[in-house]
Amino acid sequence: MFEKVKVAAELCRRKIAGLWSWYKNLYKGRAWYTKTIIVICSLIISLIIYLVMVDINFLWLFGKSPGFSQIKNPQTNEASEIYSSDGVLIGKYFNQNRTPVKYEDVNPIFWKTLIDTEDERFYSHFGIDITGLFAAVKDMIVHHDARGASTITQQLAKNMFRVRTQYSTGLLGHIPGVRMLIMKSKEWIIATKLELIYDKKDIITMYANTVDFSSNAYGIKTACKTYFGITPAEMTAEQAAVLVGMLKATTAYNPISNPKNSLKRRNVVLHNMLKHNDLTRAEYDSIIQIPIKLNFSIESNYDGQAQYFREAVADELKDWCNDNGYDLYTSGLKIYTTIDTRMQKYAEEAAIKQMKQVQRNFNNHWSGQDPWRDEKGQVIPNFIENIAKRQPVYKALQLKYDGNEDSIKYYMNKPHTVKLFDYENGVIEKEMSTMDSIRYMVHFMHCSFLAMEPQTGEVKAWVGDLDFKSWKYDKVTAMRQPGSTFKLFVYTEAMNQGLTPCDKRRDEYIRMEVYDKKKGETTIWTPTNANGRFSGDSIPLRSAFARSINSVAVRLGQEMGIKNIINTAHEMGIKSPLDEAPSLALGASDVNLLEMVNAYCTIANNGKHVSPVLVTRIIDKDGKEIYKAQREEKQAIPYKSAFFMQQLLMGGMREPGGTSQSLWSYIGSAPDTDFGGKTGTTNNHSDAWFMCVSPNLVAGAWVGGEYRSIHFRTGALGQGSRTALPICGNFIQAVMSDAAFAKYHGKFRTPDDTDIKYGMYSCASYVPVRNDTVSTDTTDVVTENESNVVEDENAPETDENTPLDDWDL
């Protein structure tokens, strides 16, 4: 092997020696001018050979370079844009905030300004400005003042392909001075390739779309919006001069951080325009007197509308992007969603309007007392301290001070400027400690709201909480106990098994043995109605559902089978796992608002389930549609069951004692529309719900504390009919009053099924029970700090302090 290498090396040496001998003979006996021509040709050939070697990364000496295919399809980071169903740009996803713009969409004055200042021979050179290059060398030698000789094409090569960072410089790049030569060589090569592939208009447009204008503004479109609040088409000569002036040094000539330097540089740029006859003397003299006027705003991922919804979209698209090779933050996608900005506005206004009142009630309710209580009503010790220990600031202090509790406690209680939520001012700043800020923030009650089209599954409004900047945890997808709103599935299964709204069940005391998994033993469960009473009467299911009588729901749960109820709930849209326990009939198992609204849509859609849709289609940066939503519809329950449940939901408003009757005060603007509803409240008032159903629009709201230990005490103030219902009511009132949403008006379909008889659901012969036995929507279920297991064999005594629903107002 060694001998073969030795032989090959010797042959190579002889060939090189022969070539050198031939080259020297070219000069022998030649005239001086011939020799000069040979030298010049030799240098040109050597330069070409060198550039080819750099381009192909000969012997790995120079590092890789982009090929023609990469230059034809450059990969630049572009922000993805997210649009509402009514065509409004509601936000962006980006790492570098860059949105491309077409040449025609930019005021021509910008192109003139750019060329006059950055590359005056742009339209005459082939990517490398030889004249400018020699002028730069002359200045460096004669005046010792190096000036830039990079053309716009070279700068594009540097910006788009990041030759100084993305592409290595190979083995020779470790030699000082040689590295810069290689980098410059690659810029020349790429610039030449760009000129071969693209025309001048494309090149200058790509440059304007990739250049960094500082302040997280990449490209001319984002820069115009960031510094002046305008579009590129609206740009004036003085604004163009400010932006072009920044390109020499974005920090030194930034109009925000260095306004004086920026003004001087702007005027230099304007003088260049005068010199190239792109400004008249009168225009120049006038413009240089104008001060720089800014409308500065740095755009972030959290700017725009419907922030909680946009985060949900990002979460939903995560797997799709991974599977299809896209990056939501760099691929420049246009994402078209289902949200309607007008309905979103109505939803946010409805939530804030109601939550202001809820917060006032909550503050008055506790009147200075700590609201975090255990099942016995006692203040939970170290509640705030335990929350603090889960915060990033606490964990950072733990690391910094090696777990020293005295140091951690000192800094956690040291006052400093903090930002806090405030209903009147949005975000306020106060001087207080981290511990005090936690105490302040946990006193707030929270909410979520969702509106969905039952026929399409399209989400039209999504409110994840009071304020995204203060609480980024989305309550629409938070897992909470649904209370009596879960009775929908109990009664639906009863209809599936042949019962009708007019079939009766007795409202009576129930005592059953329940196996407690935590304790590993069997205990006695005696579920109660919210007012602690049982009438003893046989009540039609329509009335029992309307008045949310717990004893009837529990009895139905046992008759129908908890497993069957779970299966029905899952068929209708519940995705969360459900506990197979008798208390499930009263909503003891956690679900979230998104799946609850989707399940109620199944009833409104005549038993057909359609999965939630957030995104309708996606367009890539080349204008090609790469995703289109496919509606998945299935008949989850029989139409007969859906029709009967429509009647039960409407009964919540029409039956004496119905817990949804206060919805009437909001729907006067839509007498041509059927409405139904269901309230829900857990028995310690930590979760309050309302579900509003109409034929073409379903809405749901949840109200509660950030932590389940923070809630109203027993009383009407924490019930779903008082807290969550008004959010839905205000929203429905606004939407139904808006002529733009006339399509959401309508009646439930008249049954054409001969098996459905009027007497099955009208219950005309039924006489309502006495007022003193009217129930509320409050359920008796397990929550975070309480047990629903009662070992007393006697029925509970009446709670005289438990108020009745105001159904008869």
UniProtKB/TrEMBL annotation:
<keyword id="KW-0121">Carboxypeptidase</keyword>
<keyword id="KW-0133">Cell shape</keyword>
<dbReference type="InterPro" id="IPR012338">
    <property type="entry name" value="Beta-lactam/transpept-like"/>
</dbReference>
<keyword id="KW-0511">Multifunctional enzyme</keyword>
<feature type="compositionally biased region" description="Acidic residues">
    <location>
        <begin position="789"/>
        <end position="809"/>
    </location>
</feature>
<dbReference type="InterPro" id="IPR036950">
    <property type="entry name" value="PBP_transglycosylase"/>
</dbReference>
<comment type="similarity">
    <text>In the C-terminal section; belongs to the transpeptidase family.</text>
</comment>
<dbReference type="InterPro" id="IPR001264">
    <property type="entry name" value="Glyco_trans_51"/>
</dbReference>
<feature type="domain" description="Penicillin-binding protein transpeptidase">
    <location>
        <begin position="448"/>
        <end position="684"/>
    </location>
</feature>
<dbReference type="InterPro" id="IPR023346">
    <property type="entry name" value="Lysozyme-like_dom_sf"/>
</dbReference>
<keyword id="KW-1133">Transmembrane helix</keyword>
<keyword id="KW-0472">Membrane</keyword>
<dbReference type="InterPro" id="IPR050396">
    <property type="entry name" value="Glycosyltr_51/Transpeptidase"/>
</dbReference>
<keyword id="KW-0812">Transmembrane</keyword>
<keyword id="KW-0961">Cell wall biogenesis/degradation</keyword>
<feature type="region of interest" description="Disordered">
    <location>
        <begin position="783"/>
        <end position="809"/>
    </location>
</feature>
<comment type="similarity">
    <text>In the N-terminal section; belongs to the glycosyltransferase 51 family.</text>
</comment>
<keyword id="KW-0378">Hydrolase</keyword>
<dbReference type="InterPro" id="IPR001460">
    <property type="entry name" value="PCN-bd_Tpept"/>
</dbReference>
<keyword id="KW-0573">Peptidoglycan synthesis</keyword>
<protein>
    <submittedName>
        <fullName>Penicillin-binding protein</fullName>
    </submittedName>
</protein>
<feature type="domain" description="Glycosyl transferase family 51">
    <location>
        <begin position="88"/>
        <end position="273"/>
    </location>
</feature>
<keyword id="KW-1003">Cell membrane</keyword>
<keyword id="KW-0645">Protease</keyword>
<dbReference type="Pfam" id="PF00905">
    <property type="entry name" value="Transpeptidase"/>
</dbReference>
<feature type="transmembrane region" description="Helical">
    <location>
        <begin position="37"/>
        <end position="62"/>
    </location>
</feature>
<comment type="pathway">
    <text>Cell wall biogenesis; peptidoglycan biosynthesis.</text>
</comment>
<dbReference type="Pfam" id="PF00912">
    <property type="entry name" value="Transgly"/>
</dbReference>
<keyword id="KW-0808">Transferase</keyword>
<keyword id="KW-0328">Glycosyltransferase</keyword>
